[in-house]
Amino acid sequence: MSFSATLGTARRATRAVAGDRAMLIALCLLLLLVVASICAPYIAQHDPASLSPRMRLKPASAEYWLGTDSLGRDLLARVLYGGRLSIMLAALVSVLSVVIGLAIGLAAGFVRRLDAPVMRLMDGIMAVPGLLLAVAMVALGGANIVTMVLAIAIPEIPRIARLVRSVVLSVREEPYVEASVGAGTPALTVLWRHIMPSTINPLVVQATFVCAAAILTEAVLGFLGLGFPPEIPSLGTIIAEGRPYFQRAPWIVLYPGVFLALLILSVNVFGDALRDRLDPRLSRTRKG
């Protein structure tokens, strides 16, 4: 693709975002939270693991912008570092689940003899509650980044695979695909040139919802005490640690809860608006 074509695509995407108020607000909020989390070392004045018992349960002040927790740790630093952890984990989960789900969905939808056994396997994975599977994997493998990513990504893979398979089943009957197959084009080439481009739009939308689900699941695991160790800031762990002190110091629960809610809300609203943009049929239905 030439530079001018790439620039034209970027301009069209910018106009599309600017023309949708909900998408624009959600995107700006999401970027604000992501940038704040990435720049946590420059925004927070204290180390998130630094203990100061004399300053425990202090309200917001010039030194501690969001107050302190029960151990005197800076709540702003812990919230921002916890948000950075959640965002990084959600990105890894989305990439892993989309890549594996795409491969499985393409194989199941294009190779007819693989369709039934592969999809029954996906149905079996979906029959297990995702949170229960995550709890079991974390309990067995320990609370590390690899185990957490796998525990959250595995329940999302069947959903991606089913979505891709449905697209492949509808596209593989198109005349241009049948003509390409009839001409002796290798299967991988057919998948790459003619079928996989049709899966990009739904995959992009689904990836945003996977991100939101991953952020929420990681927070739930942390709240249940099955997340990362206490010395590693996590939004769910921060809320769980602040629950016994809620009546005395409600900010310990309030601020990480608001950050978590805004993060998930912005991702979901952006994904929903993106779905409307990428699906012309849905857009026409809502306009009508």
From TrEMBL:
What PROSITE patterns does the database record attribute to this sequence?
Answer: ABC_TM1
Answer yes or no on keyword Cytoplasm.
Answer: no
Q: Which residues form the signal peptide?
A: none
> Predominant location of this chain?
membrane
Q: Where are the transmembrane segments?
A: 21-44, 85-111, 131-155, 204-229, 249-271
Q: Which domain of life is it from?
A: Bacteria
Under which name does UniProt file this protein? Answer: Glutathione transport system permease protein GsiD
